[in-house]
Amino acid sequence: MAIITETALQSDWFYLAQEQLLDPAATSFFTLQDGRITSNGRVDAVGTYLIAGSKAVLTFTRKDAPDFIMTLTATSKVFNEATAMLQADARYRIAGVNGLAAYQGTLVRRVTEFRTKKKP
Prior knowledge:
Blueprint: H1 6-9, E1 11-17, E2 30-33, E3 36-39, E4 45-52, E5 55-60, E6 68-73, E7 85-92, E8 101-109, H2 112-116
Antiparallel strand pairs: 1-2, 1-8, 2-3, 3-4, 4-5, 5-6, 6-7, 7-8
């Protein structure tokens, strides 16, 4: 597996849950930069992240609920600024449920061609 670096991770990313399809017109995305997570171009952080080898752990802080934890894994041989996707496994607690809820997803890099593409 590839090593995740701060430089290669810094970008805007879409989150796709399990088999959700990418909507190029989607306006909901996360920006990862300097250990901070922001949402939809806003300045206020919605969480933080730490990089550890081939993984990055994202912690989304929620006011009235336990933190939402997402682990990103670089499963390819190379991870750089051109890498388009990362495996994203999420874990979180739900009130009244023992244990952690878990599901798999994907982070997809938000690239310029998606942002500027116009509908016919």
